[in-house]
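Work Package 3 (structural annotation) set out to generate three-dimensional models for the target panel prioritized at the project kickoff. During this period the team completed the workflow that converts sequence records into discrete structure tokens, so that structures can be stored uniformly alongside our sequence database. As a representative example, we reproduce one entry of 610 residues exactly as it appears in the project archive.
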Amino acid sequence: VVAPCKQDHGPHLAMVGSDGATVCAEGVEADVPPTSGDAPTEEGPAEVVAPCKQDNAATADPGEAEGDVRVAFPVGAASLQSDSQEAAAAAPGKLPTTDPAAADVDPVLPPLGQNPAFAEQQRLQESDAETAAAAAAATAEAEAAATADAEAPNDQKRVWRTRHNKCTEETDADPAWYQHKRHVLVYTYSGKPVYSRYGSEDGLSGTTGALSAIVSKVSTFFFAQQGDPDSLRYMLAGEHIFAFVEKGPLWFVCISKCGDTYPDLVRLLDRVHAQIICILTGGIERTLQSRPNYDLRNLLGGTECVVNSMIRWCTQDMYLQLDGYEPLPLSPAFRGIAVEALRSARIPNVLCGFLMAGHRILSIVINRSFKVHAVDLSMLINMIMSSASLRTGESWTPVCLPHLSDKAFVYAYISFIEGTEVGVVFLSTLSDGEQFYTISQQATTVKKTLATSGCLEHVGRGLGLCPIDLRAAGADDSSPRSDRSTRRTFPIPTPLGQWRLMEGVIHAAYFVPSLQQYFSSSVASPYQTRRRTKTLFRTYGRCRWLLRSAKMPSQICIATDHECFYVSLTAEYHMYLAVPRGISTGVINQFYQWIKSQESHLFLGHLPTW
């Protein structure tokens, strides 16, 4: 029943009670007498759900304020005919229309359209509704833009996003600064701040000074008399853990209330330190020792995004748990074309050259006298992925490889194929212009080879399938066609149903220590939010922490309320698996067998040399 209420709330579907009274959605009695068919029956009232035309701020049920209005009609009531119910189902968000002439309303009440006061009220309400809808749309669009990278299935967008809310206006005097769940601070031994993940470094000198004093006092009280010097490692305060790592004259501190284990926080701080050394070399330590008040922020200016991306990579991906890099899944035939293209670019004084697709390695060729370290390679990859300028045109930039030498730079030539995420990178020990032009010519030849051979097309196709969804391997003939078609495929097609148990896998990873290479699958859709993704990888860290004193081979299984986490560590491989509770343990063997069947596609194997 559509009618105005006594307080002129506008037209609403009337709430017809069993006593025959009618009230609007605001709970105010309406000026509509019950119809002759509105008598209650012995079966009680029936409920019909119809969408409300107005975006009401309050309804009878607060939980339905932004949803549908629940309209209760007595059984047998003729107020909402069956054709109107079908219209409501066919056109969500719109009221079913009724014939005003056929409605059993009070003849004294004028038609709604002829009531000036009501017409003005309706116009104002419609105007307010349009304004609210526009504001809601703008807010939803902004929220979607802010969280799209975090919740996107593509792990690359989740980590290397352009926006990071540093909250530069916050200081340690603001309560909001203490609400962040994971702080990362870098300061000198004199307490001078160098880097902070959140807040302004100038406004955090009180906190860094206090932390520096705590470390100094603890060292004096407990470790001064020991022959082997030691230092404060971590503190526990309620739900917070303060992890400390000393690197020469620099202190790295992580303050977390996310449930991280101490070893994971130490690995995180080690990666942050390696990234800073990659940008500045280890010479900064000698500078600080001779000039304790030197401000390192002058040298780090503009590179905070690189450190921020490294922290996200450690907390939202398998990278923190593994000392390796991730190859791009690709057919061995096309990977061989990429390898031969690099091997043909034989250039003196070049340590290595590699092709990258996103943050994954397509192929790599190294100098026989050089051994690439996965951490050095990942630092360079993170630097490239964090800087849009390095992926535009040709770049020639100095980088430090800490595991090669932390006292010197090598020079990286970086050039991406236009319109793609495929890049060519060479590391040279020479910095002169002639070396740059020589490498540039060889890189052009490599790009042409990739394009003419069709390898570039297959690389783009493979990149679009990453990360690989293991549930596709478990699809069988009984799965809905639409469900199978929407899943990401995997490199080597296998018979449907052969890996049926893998359809329930939430996430899986496989690491080969001898190759320094790992495979990481996609995260199941319900776990692709930022919070659940972090929890997933953090639980792997807990499993590793429980195995810290176990001899290899070792394995562990942890069950939560809804998931089971399995970690197996051997000298040949490390396996990580997250599955729903109740699944058969046969999924472990099926995943291992699947990895073996796809090994030539998933890993680079032993690296070729010049």
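The radius of gyration is 32 Å.
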